[in-house]
Design brief:
Layout: E1 2-8, E2 11-18, E3 21-25, E4 27-29, H1 42-47, E5 52-56, H2 57-61, H3 70-74, E6 79-83, E7 95-99, E8 102-106, E9 113-116, H4 118-128, E10 132-134, H5 146-165, E11 172-177, H6 183-195, E12 200-203, H7 212-225, E13 232-234, H8 240-247, E14 253-255, H9 258-264, E15 267-270, E16 273-276, H10 292-296, H11 299-307, H12 311-337, H13 341-351
Helix pairs in contact: 4-5, 5-6, 6-7, 9-12, 11-12, 12-13
Amino acid sequence: MFEIKAKSGKARVGELTVNGKKAETPFFMPVATKAVGKFVSSDDYHAVDTQTIITNAFLLSLEERFVGPVGKFMGFNGMVFTDNGGFQMLRENLLLDSTDSGVNFKNPYTGKEVFISPRRIMDIQESVGGDVIMALDCVLPFGKSKEEFAAGLERSCLWTRKSKECYRGKQLVFGITQGGVFEDLRKQSCEFVKGLDFDGYSIGGLGIGESSEQMFKMVDVCVLELEEDKPKYLMGVGDPKQILECVSRGIDVFDSILPAKHARHGYLFTWDGVLNIKKASSVNSTIDCDCVVCKTYSLEYLRYLFKKKDSVYMRLATVHNLHFMASFMTKLREAIKADKFSEFREKVLEKY
């Protein structure tokens, strides 16, 4: 269930409800691909007030020791989204081939062939036990021809329809739009998934090489074509600037490895922009942040740990960036509720 609570322009605050859990949109989801984030635990997610996370149901299904439901397994009591494995089609070391019936992958653990059909991935996502699941989609890398994207979209539509037919109604299910950066293909994809009456819609195949302008144009196309009263999830986007622009266009949900990856590489998100811990001048900076890391440790100490390549730095920096993202989304929602989103957006963009 999704209910819009407030609006400021096209930006909106909503409430997503499933399985007795509630999450206020817009929200950002850290990526816990295999029921764990890199260098962080579920305790860390709770400590930074993370409402939701996303895991990969396909990869979890290959883990012999995994026992669902995923939230209970990893000790996370918030809302859990599961991805369908379609994104793994971009990994040449995993993808073998695809047909109208599904995808053949190479199991990264055993080397054996694994076939994923729409029915199989829906069964997997149900057994993994996430709260919001994805229909199977066909993902192509940026740079392919329009003819290749058209063929991929046709296959994606086949898989999406079969996924919905196999849906048992125990979770919320989102359909994923594809079509690359081609406006007519995106419209065609949106019209198709809209006709299947999903609980929400994901915008896939972006954030993988196209320019920000191309991304925003495709977001505009999708938001215009899809029903206003259903949640819209832009997959794989976690840059604060892009989040602001896409919220202003009507997007409700985001996920990305970017904040955690940036942290590991020495880039800390702050309200004054991105701080590069690798620069000596960073130790003389101050961060307006109330996370446990900033209240406990100096930037000089964090830089010391970073230079030593100590894993403690990896955890502390990741916790900081995830705290920033949760705080950023909270303040963003507050600005929408106060009908001051435009002012908030401009203030943040000045620093980023």
